[in-house]
UniProtKB/TrEMBL annotation:
The chain crosses the membrane at residues 199-219. Residues 1-29 form the signal peptide. It comes from Aspergillus homomorphus (strain CBS 101889). This is Endosomal cargo receptor. One of its GO terms (cellular component) is membrane.
Amino acid sequence: MAPSRSSASWLSSALAVCAILCLTVPANALYFFMDGRQTKCFYEELPKDTLVVGTYSSAVINEHSNTYTVDPNLKMLITVDEIFDNDHRVVSKRDGPAGRWTFSAADAGLHKICLTPETNAATGGWLSGAQAGAVQVTLDMAIGETSKIESEDKDKMQDIVQKVRDLNGRLQDIRREQVFQREREAEFRDQSEATNSRVVRWTLIQLFVLSAACAWQLSHLRSFFIKQKLT
């Protein structure tokens, strides 16, 4: 009896550990099946100013191969309504077989998020021969998870960062060009001032020489006239 009790306790402990591990695994995405033009809604209680980013992908059943394939003609209607505000619609978007939507909760309250596929796939039912669940939808919603949203937008952020770096590089080039132009302007100004000062100096020297020559000539003529009168 003792071995059976120990084995039973060991089995119960193992099951408990497995249950805990299963509960600790995060469920980031879910997938479900819908009939054509059927609406599937989810309700989320959101605090104020909560950012919600949703992504989805869809596939349509192929009746011949009995597999789900992407239908480029499929359109998905995404709507988000504020239940607490008389079903005020904050998002209404029609996208392709895969897409994304984003919204921020203006006020705290219950929000209804609905997806409606628009496809010509046959609708299943017990009166029709078509298979139920003609559309397979994979849905992933990030609610207030900034790190996940940033990881999804990593490529876009890198592009923006690269553009900012390019702009900074161009600004640095423009600044260097401006500094170079200012240095050339300062050098040209110094040369102009030096040339002007030399011109003024030579002009003053010429005036002095001409004045001295005129004074000498006047003095020479005066002495000449005086000598002529005396003689």
